[in-house]
Amino acid sequence: MSTSDVLAHTRDWSLGDTPEQESPFAGLSAFVQKNGKSQHLELHVSGAKCAGCLAKIEKSVGALEGVSEARLNLSTGKFDITWQGPLPASEIAETVSGLGYGVSAAAETDADEVQRKEERELLLAMGVAAFAAANIMLLSVSVWAGAGEMGSNTKQIMHAISGVIALPAVAFSGRPFFRSAWSVLKRGRANMDVPISLAITLAFTVSVVETIRGGEHAYFDAAAMLIFFLLIGRFLEARVRRRACSAANDLAGMSNRAVTRIDCDGNAIKVNPGVVAPGDTILLSQGERAVVDMALSDEFCELDESLVTGESAPHVLSKGMRIYAGAVNLSGPVQAKALSRASDSLLADIGRMLDAGEQRRSAYRKIADKAVALYVPFVHSAAALTFIGWMLAGAGFRESILIAVSTLIITCPCALALAAPVAHVVAAGKLFQLGIFLKSGDALERFASVDRIVLDKTGTLSLGIPQLSEETDENTIADAALLARSSRHPLSRAISDAAGPGPVAPNVKEIPGCGLEATIEGQLWRLGSGRWVGLNQDASHTRNLYLQRGDEMPIALEFADRLIPGTDEAIKTLEAAGYQTEILSGDTEDRVSEVARELGVSDYTSAASPQEKAARLETLRDQGHKVLMVGDGLNDAGALSLAHASVTPGTAIDISQAASDAVYSGGISSLPVLLKISKRTRNVMLENFTFAALYNLVAIPIAVTGHATPLVAALAMSFSSVAVSLNAIRLAAFTEGK
Description:
Blueprint: H1 3-8, E1 14-15, E2 33-35, E3 38-46, H2 51-62, E4 67-72, E5 78-84, H3 89-98, E6 102-105, H4 111-145, H5 152-173, H6 175-185, H7 193-212, H8 220-244, H9 246-255, E7 259-262, E8 268-271, E9 281-284, E10 294-296, E11 300-304, H10 306-309, E12 315-318, E13 322-323, E14 328-329, E15 334-338, H11 346-362, H12 367-392, H13 397-410, H14 414-433, E16 436-438, H15 443-447, E17 452-455, E18 467-468, H16 474-484, H17 490-499, E19 509-511, E20 515-520, E21 523-528, E22 544-549, E23 555-560, H18 567-576, E24 580-584, H19 589-599, E25 604-605, H20 610-622, E26 627-630, H21 634-642, E27 645-649, H22 654-659, E28 662-664, H23 670-704, H24 710-729
Parallel strand pairs: 17-24, 17-26, 24-25, 26-27, 27-28
Antiparallel strand pairs: 1-2, 2-3, 3-5, 3-6, 4-5, 7-8, 7-9, 9-15, 10-13, 10-15, 11-12, 11-14, 16-28, 18-23, 19-20, 20-21, 21-22, 22-23
C-alpha cells in the first residue's frame, strides 16, 4: 500500500498519531492505520529464512502489550500487526530489529524488487565463488601432484597465488553468510550461518598464516568450495521465495485498475478504486472488469463470471442483482451502485485468503529446518570442545586451532544444505520433462504427505469451453451461425466453431441480456435466451440457446462442457492409490452432479463461492486431512493458497498459477505422476539427511582426535556433498511404471 493509498482510505482509516520516542523507526507512525481503538501496521521484514525465524518474530511481537495479531508471510516478507493501546510502532520495529532482521514500512518497500536484488547478488556471488574455487583447485592439484618434487618456495608461491584468488571470493561471496551471522551474534544469538562463517574465516585465516610461515598445507580451496556449495542452496531458496509472492502482486494489479465514477452532475470521472464508497454510481463499459462489488442499476446486464464462479456459461442479471468484483461486462455500458469499498470486495477477500495461505505455508516445518535446529548447537560445541581439549592437553595454540578448524570444516553443513535443494532440482527437472512445472521449494514435501484431493470442475475436470451437443441438427447449426458469426459471445463462438466458416446475416442487432436478431428472407430471426423468444424460463443460468425463425417454434441448441481426455482414468488411478477425491465447484448443481456421476465421485459440492471453497479447505484441515487442491479460476485462488499443497493447469489464469505449487500441461493425468515423484523425492531427502548424519558420526571423531588436516577435512566435506548429489540424481531415472 502506497502513501496515497493510505490517504485514500481516510473515510474509515486515519494516520496513526501515537507519540513515539526518538528512534530510527520513528517515521513508522505515519503508516499506522487506525480503526476505532484498533491500530494496524504493515512492515516488510528481510532476513527471515525459515519457519524458526517466523515463529521467533511472531512470538516476540505477539508478546508486546496490546498486540492481538502478528502474522508474518515468509515468502513475501510482509508482516501484519494489529494492536490496541499506546504501543508505539517504533517499539514493534525495534523488537523485530533486535532479533537480527531488517525492518521497513511495507508501503515504502518494493518487495519484488528487494527479492530480485537479493537474487542477483547471490547469483553474482556464486559466480565469483565458482571462478575462485575452480582456479584454486587447479593450483592445489599442481601442489598435490608435485609432492616430493616441488620445492618449498614454489609451493609457497602457489599458496600465495591461491590466497590472492581466494581473498575476493571470501570477502565478496561470503557476505550473505557474514551479514547474517553478525546480525544475530551482536544480539547474543546464533543461526546456521554462524558455523558457516566461522569455518570460512578460520580456513582462510589459517591458510594465510601457513602461507606466510612457509607451512606444508594451505586450505584456500576449502574456503572457496564451501562458499560455492552453500550459495547454490541459498540462490535456489531465494528464487523460489520470490516466485511465491507473485500471486498477491497479480491480484493487486487486477484490483487497482481505474474505475469510472458518475458524479452528482452526471460527469464520468476516472478514479482510483480506493476512493470508491458505498452508494457511488459506477459506469461499467463493455468488456470492462468490475473491481468493486456493485448492484446493477440498469434493467439487464450479461456477465462473464468465470473468474469468480468458475462457471463457463454467461450470467444474465436483472436490475438490483449483485455484480461481484472480477466479473466482466459482456453487454453494452451499464451503471451500478457500489455496495462496498474496494478493500471489502470479493477480490480483496481473495487477496486476504492468498496472504493467509502464504503465511501458513511459511510456517511449514521443512525437513531441512528440523535438521538445522539440531545441527547448529552441535557443531559449535564440537569445535569449541575440540579446541579447549587440545589446549588442555598441551598441544599449543597453533595445533589446537588447526584441529578445531578441521572439525568445523569436516562438519560444515554442505551435505546438509544440499540434501534437500539438489533432490528438489533433480525432481523438478524430471517433472518438467513430464509437463509439470514445480514452483515452490518445499512443495514436494507437502505433495508427498497429502491424503485427500479436492478438484474444481470447470477447466480442471471439464474443458470449460461450451460445445454444441453432438445431437444438434446440422441445418439448425448452419442457420444459427448466420447470426452467431457476428458476435463474440462465448455461446455464439461455440456455434460458429461448430458450423465453420460461412456467411453472416446482414444488419445483425445484438440485444444486451437477450441475444441476436436480424431480418432474413423477410422474417425476423432470433438467437438468444428462452425468455426472449417467448418460452417460460425464470433461470438466469442456462446451457441452452434458442433459434426462432419467424413464427416457427423455437429450436433449442444445447451446450455441453465435456470432460478433459484422460480425466476418468486419472481419478481411478488416484483412488486406487488410496487418495480420497471430491469435487468443489462454483458451477450449478445439475452440471456438477452430472460430472460427478460420470467420474464415480460421490463427494461433491456445487455453487460454492470463493469464501465457501476456502471454508471447505479449512474444515478438511481441521479434520486432520492434508489436502491437495486442483483449480484454475480466480474463485479457486484462495483455496489453492490455503490448501496443504496445490496445483493448477497451464490454461489457468496467472493469479491461480502464482498461488499454486505446481502447474501442469494437459489433464489431471499428470497428478498420479506428480504425487509418485514427490514421495520418492521425500525418501531421497531423508536418505541424504541420514547419510549426512552418519558422515558426521564417522568424520567428527577423526577430526577431533587430530587425524584430519583442514585439507583432508575439505576433501571429506566435498565428498559428502558429491555423495548426496549423486543420490539425488537417481530421481532422473524415474519412469511412470515404477
